[in-house]
Structures are given as structure tokens and as C-alpha cells.
């Protein structure tokens, strides 16, 4: 059975099933408890008209009366979840015949197989300019109750980041619960962690029953990922946090006074779509303000993307939804979670690094990254590929590929790929190697990951890796020495991580994605006591804080910052918060140069909108953006109309019948009131002019005249009408149009980038422009 791996998602168990479903389960269990399980069953997400879910489930069970219950092929349907908030429908494990029964029942809209999603896996607040008592971290903005819901691997309730000292009582508007389960009781929650639930029915229908010797069928985090993201978004202030002495300092969530609701829907092998939807459905019902999703799958049309559909339901309830962009960069068009009502977050470096200097035998020095904090390694022999093991796997140091007699006491060189990075170090250590040099391939570029290895190890970028391998090929007795420098500050930053997934979006190319970049490289945050920092079973170490990387780490930064903005502007819509974050983003680094990109093009290349969206988040500026681009549910529905979605497909999102505008109204996807512009020209086509309309709302100075400033993308002329927007009051809305004229057609696919900035006094409202020729 074909499955896709979704990123950082885990199963969910609904403790509040509908009464009609409960009676059906009891009735049929009593009658058919001897039935066999069919090998042709599969779990599906099933979308229905809002009023038809009960009718369809009833029809499904009524149809069993005509089946032969003694037939070896007979199998009961298994209903896992009823969805009432994020979408209308249910999830179930069905035979092919049972699926046909569902499809032929009135009120059915669509169905598709369940899949597994993947997870996209201290100092950040200081790097982002957040300081206690000043600006966004003032007493007023921190005092209001904002609830952040995280769909992840669960949470470690005893962790120091989640203490509730001096917190006020749980807000009366909270409707959630603290669900009991394995190693998790109702007392595990407090005034900080106010809700916790686990969802695993979909996961177990795909993978089988959860092994409770390695995980828990409860909200308790056995992996560490959920604890890490929760403490990043909303963990309390913890002084002297560190990883074995590295990165020592003050650890804090972006909005450290927020309440946390943990929805565990991700497990050892991923997150089932059905469980993720159930988690979002529960979060909406419980009353969260922000949903953080550090997970996802491959890009696909929105109508078969459960995160997009469930996220739409959350947006309709005025909930801000932040998602990770994915870890498939620097390859183009790999960005996931690209629906325009979701905030899609790319990953960046901060200026904190963990440098290690590798001095090879020809006296050249290579600069890498390492979390090892110990004595320097004096000249040791190098081993690589055939001098380290046998077979093609030795170059990647995969399991059982290295030979002890070849590597013992030596520094082993391993290329990235084919196995996990910390697993390579495990293989080197198992084989008697003294240390490892982990070399990025051309695809990974100049990435310098600091991983929690089980032995001294240094991550080296592609360019220095070429120098190392060239020396190795020419030297009869190649050696190297390594000096570990610990934690340093002041490196050029921010910079986009090479692994961060890139645009343009395949699912919706008329909306530029990702939206924003935030710290996601070598992030220190809380960790589970049930997991080693390397995630290796052979690693006996346990830590309170761990350093890991991924867009999974970038996403909760934005979730916490959205909570900060929500605490200041409680009446702002999710679109207004997103707009504020995007239009105030910074595009220069701490050297006042364009933000760079660690991708395959090299560290000195400037990042584009397809790498970091509008730029790098600046929370202090985001709270006072001047103008915002607000977008309503109707605007998003009209956007779906412009994609030529049928009324049946739009019903998946709207929940009720919606009629697309007619009477000569021509809808364009590019007219969505979005804070960025994505323009697409087709090579050789006659259409060389594109015109988009936007409407901005004044949330700054009551009276302000904004003037348009344009930096044109190469090969495109840009006209803005009018060139001045004169606002007279707060919340006044004014519109403008932008015309893009392609100067000439191109023979190959290419892209160019520009910017439109509305300027008035202290405000610079910046919107990136991306132009693509296909």
C-alpha cells in the first residue's frame, strides 16, 4: 500500500465521540465480535456536507445487514474520528465495498487515503531583539492570556520550562481537558500546560499498535521534538540553560507567559493525517488562539491537503496557524504547507555558532561546526571510503559498513546522505573511530549543522569538503588535527539554512511561499528525559535542553511571536498578524548586507523571496506595521474560485454552500489581498501584462500619506496606481493596483525579484515581488 511520509505529525485519540457512533460500536461489537479482519482495508479521510456526517455513518452500518457475516472476507468498518470544527466529516478504516457505500450516500463530498506526515526537525529571543521589560516583552503585553496549541510529539510536563509559578488561574474561556493516559495523569497539567491530548487511531491503523516500551499512548513526549517546539514558542524563562556547557544562557519561549495546549499526533514513524486533523479539530473546540504545526508532507492541491483544509477551519474561527516550510531545500519548489491562509516559515541561522577548526596535513585550515566540548585532537590519520570499509555504504558510514581494523583510532570522513547524521557517528564509534568529519555534498551546500553526536564530530560545508577530499586523494598518509572552540557569537546572520524548503509553490504559484524566515538552525530548547539528545537508542545520555535544527524549530518562533502580537492587538485577524510580520521583516544581516543563503549556490549568494519570503522576522517592528493587508474568509473562497475549483470542492473548505461571483466578474488568483506579489509569465505567450489589486488598512498613525517606492524585478516594468495613499483615520481602507509589464519573452525558465514599499514617516510597509517565466 503506497504511503507518503508526512513531517512531524502524530496520532490522536478522541475521548468525546458522538453518542450515535458510540451506540453503533457497542451494537455491532456484540453481534460481530467473531468477524475476521480483511486484508483489503484502508484508512480514509472522508469529507461530508456538515449536516450529513451522522447520516453517512448510519447508512454505512445499515449496509452491513445485507452482508454475510460468516464470510471470511467480512470486516467491520472502524470509525476513528468525527470532525466537526476543522472540517465536516470523519475518518474510518474501510474495505473497498464499504468505501463505495460511503461514496454513494447523499452528503458525501470526497475521500482519500490516510498518510503519514513527517516532522520538520535560548538565545533566539535576544537575537530577535526581545528584552524583558522593553518593547513587546513589557508587562502589559505579557499579562494577557494567549493560548498556543502545538500539534507535535507531546510534551514533558515536569520540564522546568513549563512551571507555572506566579501564573494566574486558567482563563474561564478555556474548554479543553488534560486527558489521562500512559504515564500521564490529569495532575500533569498546571496553569502553564492547560490542556493535553493524544491522537493515535490513524497512526495505529497504518503502522500497528504503538510499542509502549518506547513511546506512550498519552500526551507524554517520548521523543523530545514536542517539548522542544513548545518551549521555543511559549516556554518560561530558564537561566543558565545549556547543552553540556554549550550555548549557556537564558532560555525562553517567544511569548513566555502564554498558556500551552499539547496535542500529541506524531509518533515514532510520523503523523497520520487523520490524527492531525483530529488534533486541530480539538484545538479549535478547546479555544486556542494560535496553532503551531511543525510538520507536513509534499506539496499537493489544497483540496487533498488535510493541513490546508483543517487550517482553513481554524482560520475561520480567527485562529492563527503557523506551519514549517519543510526541510527539502535548497531544491526549488519543495515548500510545503503553502495554502495562503497558513503562515509558512523558513529556517535561518542566528549569529551564535559552535566553530571547530580542522587543520589538515597540508597546513590548510577548514572551519566546521561541532557541539563537542573537550580536548583538541592532535594529528590523527584520516580514513574514508575504501580505507575505512567495504562496499558503497562506507562513503556514507551507514550501519555495518566500516571495518574496525581500518578505522580504529582514526578520524573517519563520512558524506551526508543515505543515513541519519548522528547514526553515522554511532557507526564510527562502534567501529573504533576516534572522531568523524561529516562532509556536506553539493546538494547541501555550505550547511554547518551542530548535531549532538556520540563522539567528537565536525560538520563541514561543501567547499571545505572538496578541499579535504582533494588533499586526501593526493596524500600518502593523510592526517588532520581538530580544535574545538565552543560557543561563539557575532557570526554573519541571519542567513537562510540550506535545508529550508524553497518556493515557488507547486500547489499555488500565484502566492509567493514561504512567507517568512525565523531562527531554525542549532536551536537550544527543552528536551524529553525519555530520549537521548542524538535520538539513538545506544546513547545513554539524557539532557534537559538539546540543540537541534529544522524548519520545525523556526515555526514555533513565529507561533510565539504571533501570540505576542495577539496580546497587543487582540482584535486583529490572523491575516492582519501575518501581514504585520511579513511587511516589517528585515532583509539585511548584522553587517548591513543582503541576507545570505547557505544553499548550493554558496554562502555569499543573496537570499531571494523563494528562500525567505518577505525576509527575516523582526518582532519589535511587527507590532507597529503602519498598514496591513487583511483577508477575509470570503476573500479566500474567491481565491479558490479563481483556481477553478468546483462548488463541491469549495464545500470542503467553506462547510456550507458558497456561490462564486459571476455577472462578468473575472477572478484572478493574484488578486488575493496578500502581502506579497507572485507574477507568472509563460514564455512565448501573448500575455505580457499582469495587473493585481490590493487593499491596505491603516493601523498606524491616524493621518499619514504613504508614497509608493518600487525596485523593479529584472525584465519587468512595474506601475503603481495611485502612487500616494492618503489616510485620514485608523482602520481606513484604501486600494491600489500594480501593473507588471514583461519587457520580453524568455527562452528558458527563470525568476527575478523586486519590491514594493509604501513609505510614510517611520513606516516602511514592504512587499516582495517575485516574477517567474515558465
From TrEMBL:
Domain called Peptidase S8/S53: residue spans: 144-600
A single BP term in Gene Ontology: proteolysis
Record GO terms (molecular function): serine-type endopeptidase activity
Annotated ranges, domain PA: 402-468
Residue ranges of the TM segments: none
Database matches in Pfam families: fn3_6, Inhibitor_I9, PA, Peptidase_S8
Keyword Protease: yes
InterPro entries assigned: PA_domain, Peptidase_S8/S53_dom, Peptidase_S8/S53_dom_sf, Peptidase_S8_Asp-AS, Peptidase_S8_Ser-AS, Peptidase_S8_subtilisin-rel, Peptidases_S8_3, S8pro/Inhibitor_I9
Domain (Subtilisin-like protease fibronectin type-III) ranges: 671-771
Localisation: Secreted
Superkingdom, natural source: Eukaryota
Chief location bin: secreted
GO CC annotations on file: extracellular matrix; extracellular region
The keyword Glycoprotein is annotated on this UniProt entry: yes
Family recorded in the similarity comment: Belongs to the peptidase S8 family.
Protein name per Swiss-Prot or TrEMBL: Predicted protein
Amino acid at each position: 500500500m503506497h504511503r507518503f511520509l508526512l513531517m512531524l505529525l502524530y496520532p490522536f485519540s478522541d475521548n468525546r465521540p458522538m453518542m450515535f457512533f458510540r451506540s453503533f460500536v457497542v451494537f455491532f461489537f456484540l453481534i460481530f465480535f467473531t468477524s475476521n479482519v480483511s486484508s483489503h482495508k484502508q484508512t480514509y479521510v472522508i469529507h461530508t456536507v456538515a449536516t450529513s456526517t451522522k447520516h453517512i455513518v448510519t447508512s454505512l452500518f445499515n449496509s452491513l445487514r445485507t452482508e454475510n457475516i460468516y464470510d471470511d472476507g467480512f470486516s467491520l468498518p472502524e470509525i476513528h474520528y468525527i470532525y466537526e470544527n476543522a472540517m465536516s466529516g470523519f475518518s474510518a478504516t474501510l474495505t473497498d465495498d464499504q468505501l463505495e457505500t460511503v461514496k454513494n450516500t447523499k452528503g458525501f463530498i470526497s475521500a482519500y487515503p490516510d498518510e503519514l506526515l513527517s516532522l520538520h526537525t535560548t538565545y533566539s529571543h535576544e537575537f530577535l531583539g526581545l528584552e524583558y521589560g522593553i518593547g513587546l516583552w513589557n508587562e502589559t503585553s505579557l499579562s494577557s492570556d494567549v493560548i498556543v496549541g502545538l500539534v507535535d510529539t507531546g510534551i514533558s510536563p515536569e520540564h522546568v520550562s513549563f512551571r507555572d509559578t506566579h501564573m494566574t488561574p486558567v482563563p474561564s474561556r478555556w474548554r479543553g481537558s488534560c486527558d489521562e493516559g500512559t504515564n500521564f495523569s490529569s495532575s500533569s497539567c498546571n496553569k502553564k500546560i492547560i490542556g493535553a491530548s493524544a491522537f493515535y487511531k490513524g497512526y495505529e491503523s497504518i503502522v500497528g499498535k504503538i510499542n509502549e516500551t518506547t513511546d506512550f499512548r498519552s500526551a507524554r513526549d517520548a521523543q523530545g521534538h514536542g517539548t522542544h517546539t513548545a518551549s521555543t514558542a511559549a516556554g518560561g524563562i530558564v537561566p543558565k540553560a545549556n547543552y553540556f556547557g554549550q550555548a549557556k544562557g537564558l532560555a525562553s519561549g517567544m511569548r513566555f507567559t502564554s498558556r500551552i495546549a499539547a496535542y500529541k499526533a506524531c509518533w515514532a514513524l510520523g503523523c497520520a493525517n487523520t490524527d492531525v486533523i483530529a488534533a486541530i479539530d480539538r484545538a479549535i473546540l478547546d479555544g486556542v488562539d494560535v496553532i503551531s504545526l511543525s510538520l507536513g508532507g509534499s506539496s499537493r492541491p489544497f483540496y487533498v491537503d488535510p493541513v490546508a483544509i483543517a487550517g482553513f477551519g481554524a482560520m475561520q474561527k480567527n485562529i492563527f496557524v503557523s506551519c514549517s516550510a519543510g526541510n527539502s531545500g535548497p531544491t526549488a519548489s519543495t515548500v510545503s504547507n503553502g495554502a495562503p491562509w497558513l503562515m509558512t516559515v523558513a529556517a535561518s541561522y542566528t549569529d551564535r555558532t559552535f566553530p571547530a577548526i580542522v587543520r589538515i596535513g597540508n597546513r590548510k585550515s577548514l572551519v566546521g561546526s561541532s557541539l563537542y566540548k573537550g580536548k583538541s585532537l592532535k594529528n590523527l590519520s584520516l580514513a574514508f571510503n575504501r580505507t575505512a570499509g567495504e562496499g558503497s555504504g562506507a562513503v556514507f558510514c551507514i550501519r555495518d559498513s566500516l571495518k574496525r581494523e581500518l578505522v580504529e583510532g582514526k578520524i573517519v570522513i563520512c558524506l551526508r546522505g543515505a543515513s541519519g547524521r548522528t547514526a553515522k557517528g554511532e557507526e564510527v564509534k562502534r567501529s573504533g573511530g576516534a572522531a568523524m568529519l561529516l562532509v556536506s555534498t553539493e546538494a547541501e551546500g555550505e550547511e554547518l549543522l551542530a548535531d549532538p553526536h556520540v563522539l567528537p564530530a565536525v560538520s563541514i560545508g561543501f567547499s571545505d569538503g572538496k578541499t579535504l577530499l582533494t588533499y586526501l586523494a593526493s596524500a600518502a598518509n593523510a592526517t588532520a588535527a581538530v580544535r574545538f572552540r565552543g560557543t561563539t557569537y557575532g557570526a554573519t546572520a541571519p542567513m537562510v539554512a540550506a535545508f529550508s524548503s524553497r518556493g515557488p509553490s507547486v500547489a499555488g504559484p500565484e502566492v509567493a511561499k514561504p512567507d517568512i524566515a525565523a531562527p531554525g538552525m542549532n536551536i537550544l530548547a527543552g528536551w524529553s528525559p525519555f530520549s537521548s539528545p542524538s535520538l539513538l537508542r545506544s546513547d545513554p545520555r539524557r539532557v534537559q535542553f538539546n540543540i537541534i535544527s529544522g524548519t520545525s524549530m523556526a515555526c514555533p518562533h513565529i507561533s510565539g511571536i504571533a501570540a505576542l502580537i495577539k496580546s497587543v492587538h487582540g482584535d486583529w485577524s490572523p491575516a492582519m498578524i501575518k501581514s504585520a510580520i511579513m511587511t516589517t521583516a528585515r532583509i539585511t544581516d548584522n553587517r548591513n548586507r543582503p541576507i545570505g543563503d547557505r544553499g548550493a549556490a554558496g554562502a555569499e549568494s543573496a537570499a531571494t523571496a523563494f528562500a525567505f519570503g518577505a525576509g527575516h522576522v523582526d518582532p519589535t517592528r511587527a507590532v507597529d506595521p503602519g498598514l496591513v493587508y487583511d483577508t477575509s474568509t470570503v476573500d479566500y473562497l474567491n481565491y479558490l474560485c479563481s483556481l477553478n475549483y468546483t462548488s463541491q470542492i469549495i464545500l470542503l473548505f467553506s462547510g456550507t454552500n458558497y456561490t462564486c461571483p459571476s455577472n462578468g466578474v473575472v477572478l484572478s488568483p493574484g488578486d488575493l489581498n496578500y502581502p506579497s506579489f507572485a507574477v507568472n509569465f509563460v514564455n512565448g505567450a501573448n500575455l505580457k501584462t499582469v495587473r493585481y489589486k490590493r487593499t491596505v488598512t491603516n493601523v498606524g498613525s491616524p493621518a499619514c500619506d504613504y508614497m509608493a517606492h518600487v525596485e523593479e524585478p529584472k525584465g519587468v516594468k512595474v506601475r503603481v496606481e495611485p502612487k500616494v495613499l492618503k489616510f485620514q483615520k485608523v482602520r481606513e481602507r484604501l486600494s491600489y493596483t500594480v501593473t507588471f509589464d514583461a519587457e520580453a519573452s524568455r527562452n528558458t525558465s527563470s525568476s527575478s525579484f523586486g519590491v514594493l514599499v509604501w513609505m510614510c514617516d517611520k513606516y516602511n510597509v514592504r512587499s516582495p515581488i517575485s516574477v517567474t517565466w515558465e
